[in-house]
Design brief:
3-stranded mixed sheet, 6 helices, 14 strands, binds zinc ion
Length: 367
């Protein structure tokens, strides 16, 4: 299987097409991260002879006897999952932070610091069926997932030792997940993750300088432009941000500014579930395969501070830029800390907008 632009030759062997009116070559400001994103869309068709990713597309069974997430199955250490029928949350058997984390070893010399890896790591099974993903679950079954995020954020955030609750999903082998069973994770930590700290500082500065919430202005600007909006109803909006760092990056956000997911009311929860369904179906329909992504919930800290400036949203960061081509993080991203994107957010949004909102596996063959 070969993707566009894989016809051979050295990556440096052919001249780049000239940047013209049809290509995008500029830097865009990421107001939440307060950093530049280099957009060099004229590079996207450059020849590529490197490694390609193979995404498995074989049929998945509804139940897998040795899956540690399927209902009724045993997990590492011998604990057994209940015969759950909706969502199911349990403490991660391999936690990165936990109540049993030991006290740090002897204090390190300055300027080094250490602290206990105290916190809670949990796993959320979205559905008892092993073969379903968010994209294939009906909206009525996505609603309980959103409600679990609400409940977990509320409960874990209320603990005095917890400063922030990070809910996320890693989906697909290319982001390190080999178990297809639909699930996400929670890291409730005694520190605030760096991305949230950065976004919070930017949002507070913007509110102070303009009197308006930053994310509300991002939504207003996306609505005014319209070219990158994928989904919109009374309560929720989904769009490829103007400053997208990944080719198919999508933000899904309530239109009302709330700092945490548990502040959403029933109608907003339903609407958020519909938006998640819409976006994930478009993703799967793009290349007719389960579309990998990293999906974090961006929420304010839970330590009781004043977070009126912070606007909760969900981000999808898909690592693929073509069906079998990974976006590699390299010199600019890892070395420099800024993203280099080879694609135009407007073009990628148009691709997603053009797709049907019925999942390809649900669609009738004749329709
Ligand atoms: Zn399973």
């Amino acid at each position: 299987m070969s993707a566009a632009g894989t016809t051979g030759g050295s990556p440096y062997g052919s001249p780049l097409p000239p940047a013209g009116p049809l290509t995008l070559w500029e830097q865009r400001w990421h107001p939440l991260r307060e950093e530049w994103v280099i957009i060099a869309a004229h590079r996207q068709d450059r020849p590529w002879t490197g490694e390609k990713v193979v995404v498995p597309v074989e049929a998945t069974p509804r139940y897998v006897p040795d899956c540690y997430l399927c209902p009724g199955n045993a997990r590492v250490g011998g604990r057994r999952n209940p015969d759950y029928t909706s969502t199911f949350v349990f403490d991660n058997d391999h936690p990165c932070v936990g109540p049993d984390a030991p006290q740090p070893q002897a204090p390190p010399p300055r300027p080094f610091r250490s602290q206990r890896a105290h916190g809670l790591a949990r796993v959320i099974c979205y559905h008892p069926r092993h073969d379903l993903t968010l994209a294939e679950m009906p909206v009525e079954q996505i609603i309980p997932v959103v409600q679990v995020w609400q409940q977990q954020t509320r409960d874990l955030g209320a603990r005095p030792e917890i400063r922030h609750v990070l809910c996320f999903e890693n989906k697909g082998e290319v982001v390190g997940v080999s178990n297809y069973h639909p699930h996400g994770q929670i890291n409730a930590t005694n520190f605030v993750f760096k991305t949230i700290e950065t976004e919070l500082a930017a949002s507070q500065r913007y509110l102070h300088e303009t009197g308006r919430p930053l994310f509300a202005d991002i939504i207003a600007a996306e609505q005014a432009d319209g070219r990158r909006v994928l989904y919109e109803d009374e309560h929720t909006i989904g769009f490829v941000p103007y400053f997208a760092r990944y080719a198919y990056e999508v933000y899904v956000a309530p239109r009302r500014t709330v700092a945490h997911i548990q502040a959403l009311n029933g109608a907003e929860v339903e609407s958020l579930a519909r938006a998640l369904k819409d976006v994930t179906v478009r993703f799967d329909n793009l290349w007719r395969m389960p579309f990998p992504y990293v999906m974090p919930l961006h929420q304010a800290p839970t330590d009781g501070g004043d977070y009126r400036a912070f606007h909760f949203f969900i981000a999808f960061h898909p690592p693929l830029r073509q069906p079998n081509l990974l976006k590699y993080l390299a010199g600019p991203e890892i070395g420099g800390g800024n993203f280099l994107s080879d694609t135009s957010p407007e073009e990628k949004a148009a691709e997603l907008q053009a797709l049907p909102t019925t999942h390809y596996r649900e669609a009738q063959p004749d329709s």
